[in-house]
Design a protein that fits this description.
Oligomer: single chain
Order of helices and strands: EHEEEEEEEEEEEEEEEEHEEEEHE
Strand content: over 45%
Largest sheet: 10 strands, mixed
Distance between the termini: 66 Å
Number of helices: 3
Amino acid sequence: MKKRIIFAAALAALLSGACSKVIDFTGDFTNTELVMVSQAEADSAWHIKVTQSKFFLGRDTIATIKNATFDITVNGQPVSCSPVHEGGGVYNTGIVPHCGDSLSVHVNVPGRSPISASCSIPQKPDISDVHLEWDTTCYTNQWTNYAGDTIIESYASGNVYIKFRLLDPADERNYYMVRVAYDRDGYHNYEDIWLEDDILSPIDAADEVFDLGLSEDENYGNRILFSDDRINGQKHTVSVAMSYYESWDNTTHFDGKHLVLEIYAVSRDLYLYWRTVNAAQNSDEIFSQIISEPVQVHCNVTDGIGILGGMAAAKYDVGLIGPNGQKAQ
């Protein structure tokens, strides 16, 4: 009986951002395929990563492609460019797409059949009234020495809410992604967040399309995805929540954590790619999927595997969360 497997380096490819598809497996080694992963963002340099899939039981590393050439069109017009390989199979096309642009690319690798994909860059989301609120249970405390006259350590904890108004365009399907970036002492990362929203939270378009049947909570992590299924054409207040805890001793100068809210409009293909990658990563049955039915990661590359998607961001400087459990002035 034939088993079905995740191709493109199985779990390793999924966790590194590559894409996969389901093929019949008879027990023999299968041919490798070209993999393209590209997430083109408005007003940013367009990068394309090209690699080669590997047999899921093999021990070889995923091969990167260093000699690819590209035929690119923007808004239906061929573009003369010479993408530069920056290492690891990543090419900088030298093209900066803008909202509303349509992108198409053919990737040519010597000795291989070409692969191709296309996407459109959406308009930036219409956002207003961005503000920060604290949970009323947020508190601070200080530890002192036995004499009570010297502060040894201070801490603040609670939940923080960043709220904004989203005006969703009517009569069209729209897809969104939200992140909260922070900087502290030169360190840049993304907060784990969740949606405080009874309207948006139940939506699971990936299950509707692929019938994944998974139960993991996709409403928590450092990247939250939602569609406009239930808010089409409306103004809707979105509330993004995060836990806050900071501690510092009496020798540490702590000014606060700098937060930036990022709201992306994303193409449908990119939205489904992220949703199904999340499902594959978070599934309780992820290891058993290697020998049974796998989670299918969404792809839109012709004659290969991978994703070409478009996105456009609206970014807001929320400011500093201060050590006293309040937004710093």
